[in-house]
Amino acid sequence: MTNQNVVVSDTKSGINMSITVAVSNSSIFATTAQKPPPAPGGGGGGGGYISISRKKILKDLDVNGGWIESMRASSPTHVKSLPSLSASDDHHQNSWMLHHPSALDMFDQIIEASKGKQIVMFLDYDGTLSPIVEDPDKAFMSEAMRKTVKKLASCFPTAIVSGRCRDKVYGFIRLAELYYAGSHGMDIKGPTKSSKFKKAVNQGLLFQPASEFLPMIDEVYQQLVEKMKSTPGAKVENNKFCISVHFRCVDEKQWNDLAQEVKSVVKEYPMLRLTQGRKVLEIRPTIKWDKGKALEFLLESLGYANCSDVFPIYIGDDRTDEDAFKVLRERNQGFGILVSKIPKDTHASYSLREPSEVMYFLQRLVQWKRPSLLRRRPCRV
Ligand SMILES: O=P(O)(O)OC[C@H]1O[C@H](O[C@H]2O[C@H](CO)[C@@H](O)[C@H](O)[C@H]2O)[C@H](O)[C@@H](O)[C@@H]1O
C-alpha cells in the first residue's frame, strides 16, 4: 500500500483540494482531506459536491467498444482480474474516490447531516445485500446480513428495492417487517408484520402499476426460454413484471448473437423496452416507472411526501439504482451510496466497495441509533 497526494481543482469555484489516498492493488481509501466534501443532504443534490470534475473524470473513464465492453465492465467479478492500473487510471480512481468517498469514512458527517430528520433506508438486493454469484437462484445473503437488516428495520423504516420478482427477493430475505418493491419497483407491498413504522394506511399496501403487462410479459418469457435453449449458459428469469436474460455464464463470443436474439423478440413488442444490468439484459414495460418512482411512492406511503424532515438513504450497485440516486439528488434529500470497487458514472454521493462494507455501514447505523441492539461493536471486515 502506498500513500499518494492528489490535488483536484474545481474550475467553477476555483477550489483546490488536496487529499491523501492510500492505494493498493485492490483498495483505495481516502485517508485525509484538507477540505472534505460538505456534509451530505440536506444536500445529496449536486450542491454539496464539486460537479465539474465528476463529468470530466467520467468522460475519460467511458468504456469504448460498444455494449459488450460496457456489459463486461458492468460486473467485474474479481478486481484482481481487472487490467492493472496505469498512473492515469490511478488518478481517475483517486479523483473518483474524492467525489464519492467511502460512506464508512464519512459516517460521522452523514449522522450529523441526518440530525433531527427521520432516516428511511432503501436497499437494493443483488450486489448490495448479497454478493454477485453465477447462479441467480443461489444469490443468498448471509445470516449475519439478515440479522443486521432485521435490526436496521427496528431502527428505521426499511425497504428493499429490487429488479427481482417480489416473492423471490422475499424468499431470500424473509423479513416480514420490511417494505418490498420488486420488479424494479413495479410491485410494491407494505410490511405484513406489524412494526412501529407501519402506518395504518399501509395495511395491505399493494401497488402494481404494470399489471396490464402480465400476459405480454409471460408470452415474451416463453419465447425467450425457447430461443435461449440453444445458447449454453444463458438463463431467462421471470421477474413477474419484467424479464432478465442472463449472460454471465455464456461464452463472450456468443454475447452479440444472444443480444440480437433478445432484440429480435422484443422488437415485436413496442410496449416493452430493453435495459442493461450486470451481465444481464432486462425486458420491461415502457411505463414511466422505475426504482426512483418507487422510492418516491414509498416515501409518500410512509407519510413523508412533502416533508423536509426526512433523510432517505439508498444503497445500490446497479444502473437501475441510478434512477433512485437521481431522485434523491433532485429532491436534495438524503443521498445515494453506490456499491462498487471501480469508478462508475453515478448520481450517488458516496461509495462502499462490497456487501461486507454495506453490512458494516448498516451495523454502524444500528449502533448509533440503538447501541443496545448490538452486543459487540461492529468491526470492519
Ligand atoms: O435490483 P437488484 O436486486 O440488484 O436485481 C438486479 C438483478 O439481479 C440479479 O442478477 C444479478 O445478480 C445475479 C446473482 O448474483 C448474477 O448472477 C447476475 O449476473 C446479475 O445480473 C437477478 O438475477 C436479476 O433478475 C435482477 O434483475
From TrEMBL:
MF terms per GO, please? trehalose-phosphatase activity
Q: What's the catalysed reaction?
A: alpha,alpha-trehalose 6-phosphate + H2O = alpha,alpha-trehalose + phosphate
Q: Mind telling me which SUPFAM superfamilies this protein's record contains?
A: HAD-like (SSF56784)
Cofactor(s) the protein needs: a divalent metal cation
- Single Gene Ontology BP annotation: trehalose biosynthetic process
| Superkingdom field | Eukaryota
Q: Does the keyword Hydrolase apply?
A: yes
Give the function comment from the record.
Answer: Removes the phosphate from trehalose 6-phosphate to produce free trehalose. Trehalose accumulation in plant may improve abiotic stress tolerance.
Family, per entry: Belongs to the trehalose phosphatase family.
This one is known as Trehalose 6-phosphate phosphatase
**Species of origin:** Cucumis melo
